[in-house]
Write a structure and sequence with these properties.
7-stranded mixed sheet; 10-stranded mixed sheet; 17 strands; 4 helices
């Protein structure tokens, strides 16, 4: 058979992974109950002070592209407390064959205290990411959650003009919906991102949410924080939730500002991986 008639199907390598951590209160200390992980997803519990347990999730594939599926799950028992984060920035790369998927699922028992503080997600040219974050809080539980998005690497002269992001966030308290939000960004949105009502030309933006009974009261404390040059922020608090939104010309000043805000909200030092990068409010 002539060589030019041969058709060899290409199978693009995909990354799949699940990591699930269960923590419970033993005496006065939050301890590991169960840990399961497979594929490209991992969870690490670094040494930390007994009153400040940490969980670090990571994607060993180094980034996300078409067809990748990564899932992180965290379960907290009653009165347990934890700070959970990611080892490094998540990267969404060129996706030619459909979106990548990332799912974060958290359940927190009555009176639990959760801080979900992942590092930033970087969107590269042509990336396509679908992410879903769902947090189920028991009665009297509360959470702080962060999402920070960076558009390319400005230091490398990158500014994506074609990237897609679908980001769904949902928080329930005692079985009732407390906060829900869906962000959709595509090539059309990026084309007008310089507009004042959009990103104002910013290279990075973030949402920091505080959810739980009476947590709207933290809005005044956040408003009192100094905002660095090149960062714009707005804060709203109502009915058990406080939402901080910020946009910045460059990612680093925004990350420093968020570090100060998170430390104020949690009353604890930031996760060690944040501190290792120099974010030490």
């Amino acid at each position: 058979m002539p060589r030019d008639t041969l058709a060899i199907p290409l199978q693009t390598q995909r990354a799949f992974g699940q990591a699930a951590v269960q923590l419970g209160l033993q005496g006065a200390v939050t301890r590991l109950v169960d840990l399961r992980q497979e594929g490209s997803a991992r969870a690490i519990l670094p040494r930390s002070a007994p009153d400040r347990p940490e969980v670090v999730f990571l994607n060993t594939s180094g980034g996300l592209t078409s067809g990748d599926r990564i899932s992180f799950a965290l379960s907290l028992g009653e009165q347990a407390r934890v700070q959970a984060t990611t080892q490094t920035a998540e990267r969404a790369y060129l996706a030619l064959e459909g979106p990548a998927g990332l799912t974060v699922s958290v359940t927190a028992g009555a009176g639990a205290d959760l801080a979900w503080l992942p590092q930033e997600t970087i969107l590269f040219e042509g990336s396509d990411l679908e992410r879903r974050t769902e947090i189920d809080l028991g009665a009297g539980a509360a959470c702080v959650m962060l999402e920070m998005i960076v558009l390319g690497r400005r230091a490398m002269g990158e500014r994506p003009s074609a990237a897609r992001l679908t980001d769904r966030r949902r928080v329930t308290l005692g079985g009732r919906l407390l906060w829900i939000e869906q962000l959709r960004m595509d090539q059309g949105a990026l084309a007008v991102a310089d507009g004042t009502a959009v990103l104002g030309g910013g290279a990075a933006f973030a949402t920091l949410a505080v959810c739980g009974q009476g947590r709207e009261a933290v809005a005044d404390a956040l408003r009192a924080l100094p905002v660095p040059d090149g960062v714009q922020a707005g804060i709203s608090g109502w009915n058990g939730r406080c939402i901080l939104r910020a946009v910045a010309d460059e990612p680093w000043p925004l990350k420093l500002y968020l570090g100060v805000a998170m430390a104020r909200l949690t009353g604890r030092p930031l996760p060690r991986v944040w501190q290792m990068q120099g974010v030490m409010p």
